[in-house]
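Chain X:
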Amino acid sequence: MRNMVDLHLHSTFSDGVRTPAELVAMAAELGLRAIALADHDTVDGIDEAIAAGTSLGVEVLPAMEFSVAFGSYRDVHLLGYLLNHRDPQLLAMLKDFRDKREARGDAIIGRINEKLTLEGKATITSAEAAALAGGALGRPHIAQVLMARGYVRDMQDAFVRYLLPCDVPKRYFPVDEALATIKRLGGVAVLAHPTTITNEREPLLRVIEELAEMGLDGLEVFNNVCSEQDSAYLRNFAEKRGMVWTGGSDYHGIEEGICMGTGRGSMAVPYSCVVDLKRARNRG
């Protein structure tokens, strides 16, 4: 996997199950040249990842995945690459966001406990889930508690039986605010797994065009949602419009069949994507 990269990884600081240092060690073992730690709505794990990367010879790109709302679309994901992750204004904004997210985690646990009580099972606590989270409490951390208690077989079972029925709506960044923040921090804005917005190409292209007018720089064309045909189409679309394109496994450590570096087995993202991201940052 020499000269290959994975530009979409999650750690315990959001909803992954491995620490930033563990992710870097895995990348080094796989022979990846570079990775991007792109936790959801937090940058708290980046310095740990960079330090580990320096030690192990893996280039680590600072990144973050913003959960945004755009028109009628909710939970659109924007990747901000090469941004200034130590910016005080950013850290204050994310602290407020994290506080609200942790309140959401507590509310989900409250609903799950109501269900557990009806089932005659002992309740769980926020502290148990928080102990598994390096940063913001996420639903996979709650799922791990349910697994440890023996209430569910695996992560999927936890989501089907408890986390989805007991969900509480997330808070989202307005898309213009997220794009402006990425630009202010000197970063490059890339739309993550575009086909999760819609599988219909014409509406998706309209969304991309609108976002490009607002400052979107690129598309994540290689991911675990796009088909090979979709990836080829989106890459061609990006290149024709002078946008950067990237790829990543979106590895959390909990999805069956998804591996760092290769995704579901066939993904191969070249280091040239990192070069293009750096050029786009310098142009900005």
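Chain Y:
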Amino acid sequence: MIEMSEIYKTYPNGVLAINGIDIMINQGEFVYVVGPSGAGKSTFIKMMYREEKPSSGKIVINGVDLSKLKESKVPMLRRNIGVVFQDFKLLPKLTVFENVAFALEVIGENQKNIKKRVLDVLDLVQLKHKARFFPNELSGGEQQRVSIARSIVNNPSVMIADEPTGNLDPDTSWEIMHLFEEINNRGTTIVMATHNKEIVNTLKKRVIAVEDGKIVRDEARGEYGLYD
């Protein structure tokens, strides 16, 4: 599903963010990416959906070699990868329904299919009753659920989450995590960067620990570790 071979990433300012990563993530896995601030987690995550490109090495996702992928083909790649951010990134002037539908409209899906699919995923995230609300009328947890609905409306095979509970209170964080578990149980591969020690230690999944741009630990049912 996801394969990285001899990945290095040096930014223009000379900072070596990723220092020789080799990793394989199989279909249907749920993986936490942990480590101290500045360890390279975000760069690691961003390279999976071509927000960042490695300086050298090979990344293959769903059989597609990202190092050889033309810029014009990147949108097609991202249709099969759902991305959820810490700050939701919803469009403020669109309703909940319209925010989720937008992901289908940009690929030219017909309106009948859009309506059915959007209502289905809003039902999954328990926000069907707020389809006509705007983002500023929702709580933080509800906004994150809309973001998740938008990320899965295309039925992606891979879901990338970068600190998805970072702006949420503990109770809401657990609600969001149980939703991620449900999505994973339906067959979607999930890779999640997180600083939430309690969640990682309670919901036992594969843990990849990154420090100084290197993978220092890879455990099938791991724990968070001693990070701030």
